[in-house]
UniProtKB/TrEMBL annotation, chain A:
Top-level taxon of the source organism: Bacteria
Signal peptide: none
Organism for this UniProt entry: Kribbella sandramycini
PANTHER family given in the database record: OLIGOPEPTIDE TRANSPORT SYSTEM PERMEASE PROTEIN (PTHR43376:SF1)
One of the protein's GO biological processes: transmembrane transport
The protein, known as: ABC transporter permease
Location of the ABC transmembrane type-1 domain: 137-353
Alphabetical list of Pfam families matching this protein: BPD_transp_1
InterPro entries: MetI-like, MetI-like_sf
One cellular-component annotation, GO: plasma membrane
Keyword Transport: yes
SUPFAM superfamilies cross-referenced by the UniProt entry: MetI-like (SSF161098)
Membrane topology: Multi-pass membrane protein
Compartments, record wording: Cell membrane; Membrane
Automatic annotation (TrEMBL), chain B:
SUPFAM superfamilies (alphabetical): P-loop containing nucleoside triphosphate hydrolases (SSF52540)
InterPro entries: AAA+_ATPase (IPR003593), ABC_transporter-like_ATP-bd (IPR003439), ABC_transporter-like_CS (IPR017871), Oligopep_ABC_C (IPR013563), P-loop_NTPase (IPR027417)
Name of the protein: ABC transporter ATP-binding protein
Magnesium recorded as keyword: no
Amino acid sequence: MTAEAPPAEVVDKVPEPAPPSGVRAWMSRHPLAAYAVRRFGLYLVELWGALTIAFFFFRLMPGDPIQTLIQSLQQNYIYNQQASAEIIARYRAEFGLDGNIFSQYLVYMKKLILHGDLGPSLISYPTPAQDVILRSLPWTIGLLGISAVLAWILGVVFGAIAGWRRGKLGSRIMTNLSIALSHVPFFFVALILVYVFAYTLGWLPARSAYDSNINPGFSLDFIASLLKYGLLPGLSIVVIGTFSWILSTRMLMVPVLGEDYLVYAEAKGLKPWRILTRYALRNCYLPQITAFGISLGFIFNGNVLVEQLFNYPGLGTTLVTAIQQLDFNTIMGVTDIAIFSVLTAVLLLDLLLPLLDPRVKYWK
Amino acid sequence: MSEKPAGNAGERSPHVLEIKGLDVTYSTSRGDVKAVRGLDLAVRRGEILGIAGESGSGKSTLAVALLRLLKPPGQVTAGSVLFHPAGRSPVDLLKVDGEELRVLRWSALSYLPQGSMSSLNPVMRVEDQFKDVILEHAPARKASLGELIPRLLGQVGLEPRVARMFPHELSGGMKQRVLMAIAVALEPDLVIADEPTTALDVTIQRVILQSLADLRTDFGVTLMVISHDMGVHAQLVDRVAVMYEGRLVEVGDVRQVFKDPQDPYTQQLIESIPKMGRRAS
């Protein structure tokens, strides 16, 4: 710019970027698509890396699953003589345990990617592990999915209010309560809930996912039973989840309240509710969307214990049983499902972000 | 509503704002600090009044107190600020609260902050930041928004497509103009501008000052311009008020003050303007 005052039109021109070429031209013309392609590539690499690590990690576990199987068959008098080497070798091949660890890895990945086949389950042999998992998956998705989303919504709403009314008595109580309760483990809350509502008051059932006298199906009775049985395990996840979301949302909210645009919104004479939603919350909930995807993994961990406690027929219970029986393929299958769902959730949320935040731009 | 102006309640007062004995105090753990002390000042309808003074002289505190944006530990401890909006009964700005104050904002009393501050909401398009304030105070204009916003932007020398942009896509000078256009969107009686040219390139400062002067001509608004820069006052304002340590040391016609400053502090301020051919050391 020269020292002379330029005419007004010059000042107002938005600098146009220089026309790029080739792939870069396509990327700058379709920034969102280019970002989606790059992000999806990263997702595939992450998925491969995590599955590979999980595979080798579980192969390091001590104990021989085939010996365990033979032993359990012997115990049940199905197989009452010493297993011959041939039979053991057959089982090894079937469970994907023959050859060296790298050829095992290649066979495993090939079956997983091409056929979605996880190999036979040890406990329910010869049922494939994926069938065992698919039987329990809907229960976990229902319980975990609904409670995680509910906890997020409640936490962001109450956290925003706690931040907005900071310094007021109600907000201080809520904040301190959140600090105290957000680090209590899920199962501890679950135990208290079971003690109070199931054991002492006898209002709600503490075990199973539905009343076994009702036939599963799309009947009102069955859905009511589902809700009744799901209430306590769901609540134990929602309670703790909500408190930790309250705390983190409040933490994001407070600095936003000191921003100039909040003072400006007040000077504009906008209604307080509008300032809270369009100015304050709109600027602080975005990091919480990414955090939600990451938190799914942690909730899954907590969920294992909650399901076990309530004898809920979900993935967590399946996983615990599988570990007890050294059911290799099922353990890995559950881990693979957890890896897949957390990475996919983060991918979807990352793709959602540029649509929610105009400042997020993805070309270089 | 508060007291009527002395005598003629119905007639239009020559003043938009009458500040009497205003005291603003910041309470700190090491005692109270008075940022504004016993300030008396009247703003005439249609004029551009400059408030000059060094950092810490209390000029920005005066602005936020008048706009009722003062936050604790700041507190107005004495005085009255009588505001005469056109077509409404006069009010003491320091006594209104809640809904009464909210309705007064922007349609009668608006604010032009420094453009380099992040006063625009980063996640809202420029047009939406016009819309929310216009629809809040003048919902009848909903139908004409499509024509109104480009016209307001044009008034400050911006292209209509700026309306579709986000604040991070604007330069500092463009942001300052957007803020100017929003400030006059509802033809307020008084616009309080806090350092409207600070942190801008000198060449753009010149353009912004011209646009501010044009706004007075086009919209007939009264402007109160707070700036530490005596050059801004020399170029833009009709009258200038000089503040020092929270007190008003001098008020007068800008030419008169520059030609014949009465207060020794004003003299120092004027001498502080750099001149060609005079080196600093």
